[in-house]
Amino acid sequence: MTTRVKIAAVGDILMWRRQIASARVGNSNRYSFDNMFGAVAPYLRSADLTIGNLETTLSGRESQYERRNPKTGWPMFNCPDELAAALKRVGFNVLTTANNHCMDRGVRGLVRTLHVLDRHHLPHTGTFRNRQAAQTPLIKIVKGIKFGILAYTYGTNRIPVPQSKPWLVNRIQKPKILRDLKALRPKVDVIIVALHFGQEFKRYPNASQRSLVKTMFQQGADIILGAHPHVLQPMAFQHTSGTGPGLKKKFVIYSLGNFISDRMLNNIHADSGVILNINIQKNDQGEVSITHVNYIPTWVHQRVVKGKPRFRVLPIRRFLRNSNASLSAEARRTMRRVWKNTTSHLRGKPL
Predict the structure, then answer these.
(1) Nearest partner of 149 among 90, 84, 225, judged by Cα
(2) Beta strand ranges found along the chain (DSSP E)
């Protein structure tokens, strides 16, 4: 009997100050994020395994959720816990937490984030509360196919991880990654690796990214999901000679772009991303393969409703085809531009 599984993956889930303020319910201390994802929820829920990169902490209530690091000037993120509940409701099954903002509220914030995700039954990987958890890979069994999921980040924005607890954050260190791949490979059918790497706002991968991906494919990784540049970077297949570990046809997208964010540096490319769909098949002989890859271009629509900014992720094609959608002429022009940018840049098949 042939088994088929659809994976959906998105890039950075960012929550800036204005986004959090827009989610506040009246003048209360409650927040609702569901409307931000309502238009794309059907696509997230339709997959058998949906993965996203949580690029904020869930460190508890604060009067100021977005701060600036006094030493670097870089933003430091925290978000109300209601975000986790919303992500669960709209269809996410796994969140990766290894990124440059995972230490934004220190060890306490990192650990609390994991507790909140656990409370909402959201499996996670990339950051860990203890050594044992760090040594236990995340394995998801979907329709009998075993998926191993790993996640690593290039750094933590110069916020140090305590030397006594290096296992808190998976760093991109080639020897460790290769050890993890070697240990995980016999236990699963497919290895998915989320890499937080590359250069911000660069639309093409650099030599370091390409070299790391090549090595990881040779050592057993099957699917690599890139994040961090905040803009889309190309995707590609790689066919092995048939002698290496893992699938014979492997896949990488160097950056999935931003899934949701406020406008960054007035860069239109940072308002867009994709819901990537990867179809996996396991045949009667137990052979597993990637059968098809496509994507849904998305755009973060910002508008003002009753004097308050609102943010929502839109599936571009569906909204452009709907003449009754509440979009201004300017928004439609922008969406057409984003659609053209996305499809020409990725050169794959969009939905």
Answers:
(1) 225
(2) 3-13, 49-54, 67-68, 75-76, 94-96, 124-125, 138-142, 145-153, 190-196, 223-227, 232-239, 249-256, 258-260, 272-282, 288-305, 308-315
Instruction: Give Cα 21 distance to the centre of its chain.
Output: 23
pTM of the model: 0.96
Residue 265 is encoded by which pair of tokens? Answer: 């540096």
Alpha carbons 92 and 84: distance in angstroms, whole number:
10
Task: Print pLDDT tens along the chain (351 aa).
Answer: 899 999 999 999 999 999 999 999 999 999 999 999 999 999 999 999 999 999 999 999 999 999 999 999 999 999 999 999 999 999 999 999 999 999 999 999 999 999 999 999 999 999 999 999 999 999 999 999 999 999 999 999 999 999 999 999 999 999 999 999 999 999 999 999 999 999 999 999 999 999 999 999 999 999 999 999 999 999 999 987 666 789 999 999 999 999 999 999 999 999 999 999 999 999 999 999 999 999 999 999 999 988 889 999 999 999 999 887 789 999 999 999 999 999 999 977 676
Can you say how many angstroms the Cα of residue 165 is from the centroid of all Cα atoms in its chain?
Answer: 25
- State the Rg of the chain over Cα: 19
- Expressed as residue numbers, the domain containing 56 is 3-346
Q: Return the number of other C-beta atoms located less than 10 Å from residue 338's C-beta.
A: 21
In a domain, 92, yes or no: yes
Q: Is 351 part of any domain?
A: no
Please answer whether residues 97 and 125 qualify as being in contact, where contact means their C-beta atoms are separated by less than 8 angstroms.
Answer: yes
Structure tokens at 35: 């409307």
Residues 6+ apart with CB under 8 A from 303: 309, 310, 328, 331
User: What CATH number does residue 270 fall under?
Assistant: 3.60.21
Angle between helices 174-184 and 207-218 (to 10 degrees): 30
In the chain, count of helices (H) and strands (E)? Answer: 10, 16
Domain count, the chain: 1
Nearest-angstrom CA–CA distance, 56 and 58: 7
